[in-house]
Amino acid sequence: MQTVEVTTVIFAPPARVYEFLLDFPGYAGYSEHLRSVEERGDGGPGTEYALTFAWWKLDYTAHTEVTEVEPPHRIAWRVTEDLNARGGWQLAGASDEAPEGVDAATRVTLRVEYRPKSFESASVSLPPLVSPSWVLGKLTGLLVDEGRQVVENVTADLEGDRRHVPIEVRVDGDVVYDE
């Protein structure tokens, strides 16, 4: 399994950040490529989501299920169709990283584990002469850009002001982006 982790610090208490992240249907408003989110359930274990993404000439609906919640520290999920992938949000108090005048901060990490070969066999309709490995290569850069946009928008909503939000991206444990 390959692993991608995106980490940042949000200046809000863990419980508030957790509740915000649990509202998964709201994510569509933060992402340029997430077209829609359909939810079946209350956000807890067993809740199913259909997330429809569109990028370049590709449209894909990922079917996921929440597998575990541990308020306010963890939300875990898995992909239930096509792709072999799982992941989750991990939250930890980080008040020592809050600037002066800010009472609380939360270190937030999105961790995704996936098997690249499952993408090649997934029911993703690719244009002629386009290989799954080419698409996977392009998606890494897209994920960094998309991650930055989503993190900045979520942070602005949670904190009440827009700011530059440093993020760290790791792929298989190696830092590939740190700003």
UniProtKB/TrEMBL annotation:
SUPFAM superfamilies: Bet v1-like (SSF55961). It comes from Halocalculus aciditolerans. This is Polyketide cyclase. Pfam families: Polyketide_cyc2. The lineage of its organism: Archaea, Methanobacteriati, Methanobacteriota, Stenosarchaea group, Halobacteria.
